[in-house]
Amino acid sequence: MKVLITGAAGFIGHALIKQLSATAEHVVGIDNINDYYDVELKHARLRDLEGIGNFTFIRADLVDAEVLNQIFATHRFDCVINLAAQAGVRYSLDNPKAYVQSNVVGFLNILEACRNFAVPKLLYASSSSVYGLSKDVPFSTRQSVDCPISLYAATKKANELMAHTYSHLYGIQTIGLRFFTVYGPWGRPDMAMFKFTKAILEGKPIDVYNHGQLSRDFTYIDDIISGVMRLLEKDGLEANSVFNIGHGSPVSLMDFIRAVESATGMTANCNYLPMQPGDVEQTWADTQGLFDAVGYTPSVKVAEGAARFVEWYRAYYKI
Predict the structure, then answer these.
(1) Record keywords: NAD included (predicted)?
(2) Between the CA of residue 33 and those of 29, 37, 85, 86, 179, what are the distances in Å?
């Protein structure tokens, strides 16, 4: 199997390449290495992938349809896993055009390339953000997601609709992945685990929004990769489907902070703030659909995941 992974220098892309390269014939990764967060971390992830004989990295932007088509023509992929996206809810308030270019135009180029080069299977990153302010928990893929409260969420909902259309028209099997608050070693600096660990170890205050009255379905990276791999390898799924990939058990923000405190051996100095625009009070994944489809059962709890992240963070930054 020849597989393309977009967002190869990203958090989930890096982890997936390490896992998939053990079984795939050839893995090609592309990334534009944008500066949304520290590019050195992205380059470090790529260095961590050096030495994998069946992995090829190409620096490219999904918005450049001509380059993308050249890559597809050269490699003739059996499957594409689209993880490249402009991420982050809060950043979308200040930089909306970046989200339309990467998440809408870029995704359209992926769909067109899959169509034109007869790629039979496409997995793509959606997000738990599509559930918006829904009070109907746990969040189920059967419920309506027609009321996003951030442009980021709107672009991810658009991706699901676009994928459905291409699946219907051109027979491409499309599988949407609604990720729930992914964390772990090599994680993103704009995410809570990274930000809290960095601030606590440096003796700086952490910003705690909605005065701590938040909860998230924190999902460890290894569990995420397990779910994606199971879907990639599974035959007989519907032509178009969407799955929640989360832990299935939300954790309050304050309990999450306590887990980071325990892992660092230090106490957080909390700066309590109001709710931020575009944010939601809770996320909670109903993962029954993914269990029924591929037997997905997440196993890493926040205390263990926090300890693993802090261990990696200390090693990476030589603390």
Answers:
(1) yes
(2) 12, 9, 11, 11, 21
Spell out the residues 6+ positions from residue 126 whose beta carbon is closer than 8 angstroms to its own.
156, 157, 159, 160, 176, 177, 178, 179, 242
Q: Which tens digits make up the pLDDT trace of 23-60?
A: 999 999 999 999 999 999 999 999 999 999 999 999 99
Q: Assign residue 37 the CATH number of its domain.
A: 3.40.50.720
Has residue 50 been placed in a domain? yes
Name the residue range of residue 171's domain.
Answer: 2-183+219-247+284-299
pTM more than 0.70? yes
Query: Is the residue at 209 inside a domain?
Result: no
pLDDT at residue number 222: 98
Q: How many Cβ atoms are within 10 Å of 160's Cβ, its own excluded? A: 20
Query: Three-state DSSP class for 1?
Result: coil
Tell me how long the chain is.
319
Strands 173-179 and 121-127: parallel
Please report the DSSP string for 174-235 in residue order. Answer: EEEEEE--EESTT--TTSHHHHHHHHHHTT--EEEEGGG--EE--EEHHHHHHHHHHHHH--
Alpha carbon 232 to chain centroid, angstroms: 16
| Cβ(175)–Cβ(241) below 8 Å | yes
Report d(CA 98, CA 85) in Å as an integer: 9
Catalytically annotated residues: 152
Residue pair 26/54 in contact by the 8 Å Cβ criterion: yes
Q: Is residue 199 within 8 Å of residue 313, measured between CB atoms?
A: no
Asked whether residue 202 is domain-assigned, the answer is: no
> How many domains, the chain?
1
Do the beta carbons of residue 190 and residue 88 sit within 8 Å?
yes
Give a yes or no: residue 261 inside a domain: no
